[in-house]
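seq:
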Amino acid sequence: MNKSMMRLAYFMAYCGGVILLALILLTCVSIIGRSVNGMMHSDLAQSTIGGFANWAIAAGVGPINGDYELVEAGMAFAIFSFMPLCQISAAHAAVDVFVGLMPRGLVRFLIWISEIVFALVLILIAYQMFNGTGDKFRSNETTLLLEFPIWWAYALSLVGAVVAALTAVYMAGIRTVELVLGTTLVAEGGGAEH
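struct:
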């Protein structure tokens, strides 16, 4: 079961990574286009290369229309896509100043509590995302510039939220068994410790 959950978590992380890379490229192209458009409108460009500058402006050199809308929708999906891998690999940031001084049983108990809380919170987030997706679908609300339905972004994020919730429930179950048996079934840690 752990291998299947790990594969699912990695698959979601790869999907989120692809979207994140696409958003980075989109943002870079849009910024470059905005800068070039600004230069083509300058007095210097108009006086020296006026014909080319006017041609470039007419050709549409400029920022990508709706770039903010695409980044907003894509970032939400990317964040939810990385959550399952963080959850299953215990890679969340942890502040453990006193944990090294605590007995192993107490540490295991605290890890179990945190996994239960994570599972409950991620289930709540997935549930609210499901409700939000339905609300946006029924309202037919669209984005301002691109006019794509907002529920599309909610639905994509819902997929990541559901997988994150499933992963959190799985890890809560694993930590429960570990607590009862007093053993480690899935390695802990890997997160940033402060």
